[in-house]
Amino acid sequence: MSKNTKALMDEDIVVGLDVGTTKVCVIVAKIMDNNKIDIIGIGKAPSNGLHRGIVVNPHKTIESIRAALDEAKLNSGVDISSVSVGIAGHHIRCIQSSSIIGINNPDRVINDEDVRRLLDQSRILKLPSDTKIIEVVPQEYIIDGKDGIYETPVGMFGTKLEAKVNIITGLVSSIDDLSKCVTSCGVDIDDIVLEPIASSYSVLDETEKKVGVAMIDIGGGTTDVAVFKKGVLRYTAGIGIAGNLVTNDVVEALGISDAEAERIKREYGYATLSEILNDDEITFESIHRNQPKRTKKSILARIIMARMQDIFELSAVELKNSGIQKELHAGVVVTGGGSLVRGSRELAEEVLGMEVNLGFPSGLSGGLTKEVESPIFATGVGLILHRVKTINDVNKTTKGDKKKKSKKLNAKGIFAKIKEWFDEL
């Protein structure tokens, strides 16, 4: 295989790495000629070493990531060299800011460089020494006092360009710890993406984001809340209560192992009593194994419901903090592994007082698509879609630059030809 062929293959392969509190998931995708995305490999491993989305044991975290990468390599037949990584946790903060620049182009036409300069300007703000910027999300552009511009202003005329932005920040130590764990596994990092943003790419459509929607992603260690309006992320927050605490409550209440508690939660668990059709007795292993235990579905449901209610009540607080709770005309989408407990949607509707739907990954075309059509893979699939969009955006900008350069060269050629004609005269 030639070096050029290898480089071409690398460009066509995109890998998403979701390092969660309970699982590490690697998804390998191939960008096809028609820009469709085929899932060609999946790797999963139990996650050890994280607590509420934060690395607390680097050695165990590296082992978990390496195990998932190895399975994905074997599953896809691809040698993984780089990944897009998702980051979350209750240390994530959302800061509203603004910036302003002058347009110094002779023709006063706003270009890509102006927008980049504007967003770089917005990054200049005082932050605590232990905090760094993860992402800058433009909310609205203003040109010469003309507001209400939500798409990129490239190509528009003006002398002054302003932007209202959301600055997403996180703890330096948490971001660096995760990055070091990933690179220690022998792969480079293409991008570090906020997990709520990644998940939104796979479970929300553009119409929902435009009219207003909230996404609640219930993972193992953290629950992420993201609010979208007019097509952009308006607010995000992390909650330190998620699926693991639901399982822990079952462990404490019934006196059983973590594995058994997780099993009966998945098989027999309900988040609302009204969803139970037959209140059958269920049997499960005790810690001593030789003494099986029994309980009713309704008793298990009460244990689960109490903690799930906490999750949705805290989510309701964050929706209120967003300031646009009453503008969410598309309601709420609940996703992540924690949303798979039966009755979660109904309980969310009761607590939040608005329409709630379950979010399943979409936007894929072939390969192992069916294998990842579960809320468990919302972030992993979202990382793939986010990366593909980033690549397409870069390619568009590059083509635009080449086109401008070509026009300049053509213009020079024409003037040279005219000069030749005059010289001949």
Describe the model.
There is one protein chain. This protein is an alpha/beta fold. The protein has a domain at 93-171: Dna Ligase, domain 1. It contains 11 helices and 19 strands. The protein has helices spanning 3-12, 58-76, 112-122, 172-183, 195-203, 206-211, 243-254, 258-268, 297-321, 344-352, 378-424; strands spanning 13-19, 23-31, 37-46, 50-51, 54-55, 82-87, 93-102, 131-143, 146-149, 160-171, 188-194, 213-218, 223-229, 232-239, 281-284, 293-296, 332-335, 356-358, 366-367. A 6-stranded mixed β-sheet has the order 11-6-1-2-3-19, sandwiched between helices. A hairpin with a 5-residue loop joins strand 2 and strand 3. It is globular and about 85 Å long. The termini are far apart.
Concise synopsis of the structure shown:
This protein is an alpha/beta fold and 425 residues long. Helices cover 40% and strands 28% of the residues.
Topology record:
Layout: H1 3-12, E1 13-19, E2 23-31, E3 37-46, E4 50-51, E5 54-55, H2 58-76, E6 82-87, E7 93-102, H3 112-122, E8 131-143, E9 146-149, E10 160-171, H4 172-183, E11 188-194, H5 195-203, H6 206-211, E12 213-218, E13 223-229, E14 232-239, H7 243-254, H8 258-268, E15 281-284, E16 293-296, H9 297-321, E17 332-335, H10 344-352, E18 356-358, E19 366-367, H11 378-424
Parallel strand pairs: 1-6, 3-19, 6-11, 12-17, 17-18
Antiparallel strand pairs: 1-2, 2-3, 4-5, 7-10, 8-9, 8-10, 12-13, 13-14, 15-16
Helix pairs in contact: 2-4, 5-11, 7-8, 7-9, 9-10
